[in-house]
């Protein structure tokens, strides 16, 4: 259940009550695709760096170790030793990215595993069954992610199919939640708004899915090649047509600046592989913008990545040492940078919530954008 605590213009501050605890929003979900954060960061670390929600991937976990294996072991929370909320995405985006080896039909999608090439079918019911086996807190509806740009006629057909699939997802989830033996019978379902960069299609779709009384609503199919301006235009168009009493999730976004801009447009939930991926390559976020720790200028730098940062990395290690670890190809380099970047994102969200509570979000946003741009 979503409780809107405060609204200032479009900016929202809320709490989302789930079977695995209350999520303070706006929130950034830390991406652990295969039930692990890439870069040797554990679920114990996630608590230390202030993570509220972990996100795992239906498609990847279905392939390995297999959702039935995870069910056998008591569900994803038990499997990865995480007692806070988990969101699982539906597999739709991964299937979309396999464009060369998939076939979309009304019943669902036929595709080949990227691991061993075996044939797999996934439709709305299968996606819900897999997510029920994983027993995540929040399951995402199975949708079609379309390439951008796509012809308008195709987008219309695709969105209509996504709506039909959403109804099937809801029916199947209701059925699964009523079964004896379901690990998480209170599993929640978020629907996904699609429509490419066409405002009229997006708005119609938002109106349609809003009537379905789901637990939350996501804006999908963005951050796939369109400009930031186009993305913000679509968010501005869609948010007013989604229910105010439900959380709004912008999928796969993004940079710290993207997050601030989307919060100012009414978005509550975010996820992105960016902080972990950047960290694994030595690109780290600081209050003055992003730096590449491998640059020669840091060879003798005895300062932490970001002065004043309270993350485990900055509290204990210098830029010079971390640069050395990368040059020596030590795994610890990735771990320390991913820890720092995820801490940076989780702390940013905490500061955003504090700024909304204190009625100074606009000033906070402008100050941050100015600091990052200066760099």
TrEMBL record:
Pathway: tRNA modification; tRNA-queuosine biosynthesis. Zn(2+) binds at residues 309, 311, 314, 340. The active site is at 89 (proton acceptor), 271 (nucleophile). Transmembrane segments: none annotated. It catalyses: 7-aminomethyl-7-carbaguanine + guanosine(34) in tRNA = 7-aminomethyl-7-carbaguanosine(34) in tRNA + guanine. Keywords: Glycosyltransferase, Metal-binding, Queuosine biosynthesis, Transferase, tRNA processing, Zinc. Substrate binds at residues 89-93, 143, 194, 221. Gene3D superfamilies: Queuine tRNA-ribosyltransferase-like. Its EC number is 2.4.2.29. Binds 1 zinc ion per subunit. Residues 252-258, 276-280 are annotated as: RNA binding. One of its GO terms (molecular function) is glycosyltransferase activity. The keyword Repeat does not apply. Belongs to the queuine tRNA-ribosyltransferase family. Catalyzes the base-exchange of a guanine (G) residue with the queuine precursor 7-aminomethyl-7-deazaguanine (PreQ1) at position 34 (anticodon wobble position) in tRNAs with GU(N) anticodons (tRNA-Asp, -Asn, -His and -Tyr). Catalysis occurs through a double-displacement mechanism. The nucleophile active site attacks the C1' of nucleotide 34 to detach the guanine base from the RNA, forming a covalent enzyme-RNA intermediate. The proton acceptor active site deprotonates the incoming PreQ1, allowing a nucleophilic attack on the C1' of the ribose to form the product. This is Queuine tRNA-ribosyltransferase. The lineage of its organism: Bacteria, Bacillati, Bacillota, Clostridia, Eubacteriales. The gene is tgt.
């Amino acid at each position: 259940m979503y409780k809107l605590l405060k609204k200032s213009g479009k900016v929202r501050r809320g709490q989302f009550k789930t079977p695995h605890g209350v999520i303070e929003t706006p929130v950034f979900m830390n991406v652990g695709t295969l039930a692990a954060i890439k870069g040797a960061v554990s679920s114990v670390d996630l608590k230390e760096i202030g993570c509220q929600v972990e996100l795992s991937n239906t498609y990847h976990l279905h392939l390995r170790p297999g959702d039935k294996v995870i069910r056998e072991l008591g569900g994803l929370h038990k499997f990865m030793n995480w007692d806070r909320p988990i969101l699982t995405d539906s597999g739709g985006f991964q299937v979309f990215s396999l464009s060369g080896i998939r076939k979309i039909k009304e019943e669902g999608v036929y595709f080949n595993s990227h691991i061993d090439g075996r044939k797999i079918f996934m439709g709305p019911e299968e996606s819900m069954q897999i997510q029920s086996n994983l027993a995540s807190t929040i399951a995402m509806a199975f949708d079609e992610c379309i390439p951008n740009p796509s012809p308008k006629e195709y987008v219309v057909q695709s969105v209509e199919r996504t709506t039909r699939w959403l109804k099937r997802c809801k029916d199947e989830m209701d059925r699964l939640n009523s079964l004896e033996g379901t690990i998480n019978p209170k599993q929640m379902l978020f629907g996904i708004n699609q429509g490419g960069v066409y405002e009229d299609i997006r708005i119609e779709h938002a109106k349609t899915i809003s009537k379905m009384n789901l637990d939350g609503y996501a804006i999908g199919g963005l951050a796939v090649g369109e400009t930031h301006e186009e993305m913000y235009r679509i968010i501005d168009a869609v948010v007013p047509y989604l229910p105010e009493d439900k959380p709004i999730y912008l999928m796969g976004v993004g940079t710290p600046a993207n997050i601030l801009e989307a919060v100012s447009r009414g978005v509550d939930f975010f996820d992105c592989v960016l902080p972990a991926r950047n960290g694994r390559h030595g690109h780290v976020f600081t209050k003055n913008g992003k730096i590449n720790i491998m640059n020669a200028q840091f060879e003798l730098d005895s300062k932490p990545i970001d002065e004043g940062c309270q993350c485990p990395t900055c509290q204990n290690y210098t830029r010079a040492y971390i640069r050395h670890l990368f040059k020596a190809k030590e795994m610890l380099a990735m771990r320390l940078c991913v820890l720092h970047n995820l801490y940076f994102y989780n702390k940013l969200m905490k500061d955003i919530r504090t700024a909304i509570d204190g009625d100074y979000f606009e000033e906070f946003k402008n100050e941050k954008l100015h600091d990052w741009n200066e760099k």
